[in-house]
Amino acid sequence: MKLKIAFYSFFILLHCTANLIEKDVQILRTPARANYDKQKGQYTSCPFCQEINDDNDGQHYIIHRAQSFIIMLNLYPYAPGHMLIIPLRHIGNLYDLTDNELHELAELMALVSKACTQALCADACNIGLNLGKDAGASIPEHLHVHVVPRKHGDTGFISVIGNAQVVDPNLKMMYSVLKKYIEGAI
Amino acid sequence: MKILYVPWRKKYAQDVNIKNECAEKKNCPFCTAFADNNDAKNYIIKRYNHNVLILNLYPYNAGHMMVIPYTHTSNIHELSPEARAEMVEIMSQASQVAQEKLGAHGVNIGMNLGKEAGAGIPSHIHLHVLPRWKGDTNFMPLLANTKTISFDLNEIYADLKKYF
């Protein structure tokens, strides 16, 4: 117990100090990811491959299957409508993708960024890849491109000071809106 | 949250002129650098058909590169399919160089599309390729207010030019 308290105090201290040093950092609070963080690293096999190989796209929130990639909702979103573009092949490096796959990825990135603004009415979006554990990837063995819709003020006072985030937790709604848009656009 | 501390970006952050006046092409720092014919001065590593690979002058970390299309646009979907395809190809190549030549342990790749997503120059899209090393957010930057960074912009520019 004491050890636990010491651990948490250290963490809080670290956190406060970090905030003091760099006041410009905006914090996008993601309390819904607490469950995910607990089970992190406990996979026995690749969760993406399981979802890709299963034929229940609705249950896994797979929005679209392209030739070499799927677009799915992140079940533990940083923000509502957080999508992932994942290659069907289980590879960890960008340069393992063939030229054809890279070209398809370029088109899907454009499509999905458009879906953020047009289907979800987002003001902006972040697209990002963490390659390797040291870059922050929690499933580094299987590439995945994050697409995070952003709204003006989503790191505003409610989330930064009020310790709360205004999120519509309805994954099903996000799923149907995005599916409709993406299927219509292709 | 891990914090990658980048004090040398202060100059950039304070330069409100860059950030506010770049909506027009003539004030865009990227368009200006591309129109200039002094690639070494602008740290342009390589010019491709539709894109330019350039070093970030205000890097988050050593070897921070950016892939930037010639087209002055704020959306990826406004690029031609050829320009987009080339952009993603260069991104893949740059991640490989970062890992295999610079010895990075990981790489972050990202685009902030729009001001609300944190883009400093939202009117001209740019894709960041950021090499990462174990411990680059360790106790030194977090607690000692010091970020160790073992590179010189000119040296790494010369080094990277060889690999592209």
List the main descriptive attributes of the protein structure presented here:
heterodimer, A: 186 residues, alpha+beta, B: 164 residues, five-stranded antiparallel sheet, 6 helices
Please tell me about this protein's structure.
The complex is a heterodimer of chains A (186) and B (164). Chain A has helices at 2-21, 34-39, 47-53, 99-118, 157-160, 171-185, and strands spanning 62-65, 69-73, 83-87, 124-131, 145-150. With 186 residues, chain A is α+β, with helices and mostly antiparallel strands. In chain A, strands 1-2-3-5-4 form a five-stranded antiparallel beta sheet, sandwiched between helices. In chain A, a hairpin with a 3-residue loop joins strand 1 (62-65) and strand 2 (69-73). Chain A starts with a helix and ends with a helix. The model of chain A is unreliable at 10-23 (pLDDT under 50). With 164 residues, chain B is of the alpha+beta class. Chain B is 33% helix and 17% strand. Chain B has helices at residues 10-14, 16-21, 29-35, 81-100, 139-143, 153-163; strands at 44-47, 51-55, 65-69, 106-113, 127-132. A five-stranded antiparallel beta sheet of chain B has the order 1-2-3-5-4, with helices on both faces. The longest helix of chain B has 20 residues, at 81-100. Chain B starts with 9 loop residues before the first helix and ends with a helix. Classes of the chains: A alpha+beta (186), B alpha+beta (164).
Helix-strand layout with pairing:
The complex is a heterodimer of chains A (186) and B (164).
Chain A: H1 2-21, H2 34-39, H3 47-53, E1 62-65, E2 69-73, E3 83-87, H4 99-118, E4 124-131, E5 145-150, H5 157-160, H6 171-185
Helix pairs in contact in A: 4-6
Chain B: H1 10-14, H2 16-21, H3 29-35, E1 44-47, E2 51-55, E3 65-69, H4 81-100, E4 106-113, E5 127-132, H5 139-143, H6 153-163
